[in-house]
Amino acid sequence: MSAEDRDGDPALPSARGAAVGRRIGIGLMYGLWRPRVLGAWRVPVSGPVILAVNHTHAVDGPLLMGTAPRPVHFLIKKEAFTGPLDPFLTGIGQIEVDRKTADRVAITRALGVLGAGGVLGIFPEGTRGEGDFASLRSGLAYFALRSGAPVVPVAVLGTAGSRGRAVPALPPLRSRVDIVFGEPFEAGDGSGRRTRSALDESTVRIGKRLTAHLSDARRITGRG
């Protein structure tokens, strides 16, 4: 299925919408902050890709939309799809997901993006936290094994708000935010297995790669 075909299927996220979302993200993110993007050339220029991103602030997703070299379809919690944000997020090709259950509609849409050669963005920790990849869910491994898409680790540094605040403050205007893309890797072991044990092993394997990338990104950017 091509991107054009996917735009003709209302059940799947719009590739054109994601491209519009990227243009909006570029304008907003570069207007508000000073993103420093490192390693973007590591993202394959075509074909399915999964961006695995650490998550400390709500602005991390928009930052990736505006700094990734290709349009990104993010899996976003359904609670964000309220009021005017609902048609907006849907219009720019983002995917609503219910984190409390195995959301079959979201799974189908995400696999549809990868099947059409698009870019799927995932926060593998499941929710905002320390942003250290310490607690991974199996969703990332599932999509990687099912689709065969390479995983590109991404570290977003400089957006973490003050600890203890229910709603973290935005990074100071015009402050530097670092987005570091790592080397793409295969989540599987090469056997093609999709069993529960293969999923568990893949989750562990992914966790090690993401943690190592985050450590490298902190060293390269001088952020600890």
Account of the protein in words:
By secondary structure, this protein is an alpha/beta fold. It has one domain: Glycerol-3-phosphate (1)-acyltransferase. 38% of the residues lie in helices and 16% in strands. It has helices at residues 3-7, 15-32, 60-67, 85-91, 104-115, 139-147, 196-221, and strands spanning 34-38, 49-53, 73-77, 95-97, 119-122, 151-157, 176-181. It has a seven-stranded mixed β-sheet, sandwiched between helices. Helix 2 (15-32) crosses helix 3 (60-67) and helix 6 packs across helix 7 (196-221). The longest helix is centred in the C-terminal third of the chain and has 26 residues, at 196-221. It starts with a helix and ends with a helix.
In the CATH hierarchy, the architecture is 3-Layer(aba) Sandwich
The percentage of residues in β strands lies in 15-25%
Mean pLDDT: 87
Instruction: Work out the radius of gyration.
Output: 16 Å
What is the chain-wise order of helices and strands? HHEEHEHEHEHEEH
Weakly predicted, low-confidence segments = none
Secondary-structure class: alpha/beta
DSSP E strands, number: 7
Distance between the termini: 43 Å
Named CATH topology:
Glycerol-3-phosphate (1)-acyltransferase
Give the tags:
single chain; 224 residues; alpha/beta; Glycerol-3-phosphate (1)-acyltransferase; 7-stranded mixed β-sheet; 7 helices; globular
Task: Record the SSE blueprint.
Layout: H1 3-7, H2 15-32, E1 34-38, E2 49-53, H3 60-67, E3 73-77, H4 85-91, E4 95-97, H5 104-115, E5 119-122, H6 139-147, E6 151-157, E7 176-181, H7 196-221
Parallel strand pairs: 1-7, 2-5, 2-6, 3-4, 3-5
Antiparallel strand pairs: 6-7
